[in-house]
From TrEMBL:
Gene3D superfamilies: Bifunctional nuclease domain. Coiled coil: none annotated. GO terms for molecular function: nuclease activity. Residues 172-198 are annotated as: Disordered. InterPro entries: BFN_sf, Bi_nuclease_dom. This is BFN domain-containing protein.
Length: 198
C-alpha cells in the first residue's frame, strides 16, 4: 500500500442540488479528489475550520478523549479504499491498531488534531481528476500558486496529457523506473563501447 499525503482545501457545494464535498488535492499530479459528505458533516467540518468550539464535547471530541486515554492517540488518518463512489477511511492509533471510519469522521479527527490526510495511490488514480486552475478559481474560489503547479514540470507542456499518458503506461504495467533503468543501461553500454574503442 502506497499512501500519498494530500492537501485539504475545505468544504464546497456544487451543482444545482448543492451537494457538499471536501476537496483534497494531490499536489504532485495537480489532481483533485472530491470526497462527498452529508450536509450535517459538512456543517460541522466547516464550523471547526472557522474556529468554532462547542461549549460541550461533540461526538468527535468524545472520540478523541477515548482514543487518547485508551490507545495513546492517533498517528495517521488515511483514505484506503474507494468503491462505487464510497470511500473508506482508516484511523491509525499509536499502538498500531487501525479503525475503519467514514471519511467525514476521519476528516473531522484530522482537522481537530491538525494531522495530514493520506490517500492510497490506487484510490487517487481511480477517483481523482485534473481540473484547470481557472476552473478551480471560478467554481471553488481556489487558486494554486504557480510554484505548486506541475505544468512547469510537464514534459510535453500539457500536464493533463502527461497525466493521461502516465496512467496509460501504468495500466500496461510500466512505470518511470522502467524507463530510468533502460536509460542507465544504455548509458553504461555507450561508455563500454567508448572504452573498447580507446
Amino acid at each position: 500500500m502506497t499512501l500519498i499525503p494530500v492537501e485539504y482545501h475545505g468544504i464546497h457545494t456544487t451543482g444545482p442540488e448543492q451537494f457538499t464535498c471536501v476537496l483534497l488535492r494531490w499536489a504532485e499530479q495537480n489532481r483533485i479528489l472530491p470526497v462527498w459528505i452529508s450536509p450535517l458533516a459538512a456543517a460541522e467540518l466547516d464550523s471547526r475550520d472557522n474556529g468554532f468550539t462547542p461549549r460541550r464535547p461533540a461526538t468527535v471530541d468524545l472520540l478523541l478523549d477515548v482514543i487518547n486515554r485508551s490507545a495513546g492517540g492517533v498517528t495517521a488518518i488515511n483514505i484506503i479504499s474507494h468503491f462505487e463512489g464510497v470511500f473508506i477511511a482508516s484511523i491509525v492509533l499509536a499502538d498500531g491498531q487501525e479503525i475503519d471510519a467514514r471519511p467525514s469522521d476521519a476528516l473531522l479527527l484530522a482537522r481537530a488534531l491538525e494531522l495530514d490526510v493520506n490517500v492510497e495511490e490506487d484510490v487517487l488514480n481511480q477517483a481523482s481528476f485534473f481540473v484547470a486552475d481557472d476552473i478551480m478559481e471560478e467554481y471553488f474560489g481556489i487558486r494554486f500558486d504557480a510554484a505548486d503547479s506541475t505544468e512547469d514540470l510537464s514534459a510535453s507542456g500539457d500536464a493533463q496529457a502527461d497525466a493521461d499518458f502516465e496512467e496509460m503506461m501504468r495500466s500496461l504495467g510500466m512505470s518511470e523506473l522502467d524507463f530510468e533503468t533502460e536509460e542507465k543501461d544504455r548509458d553504461k553500454d555507450g561508455e563500454k563501447e567508448e572504452d573498447d574503442q580507446l
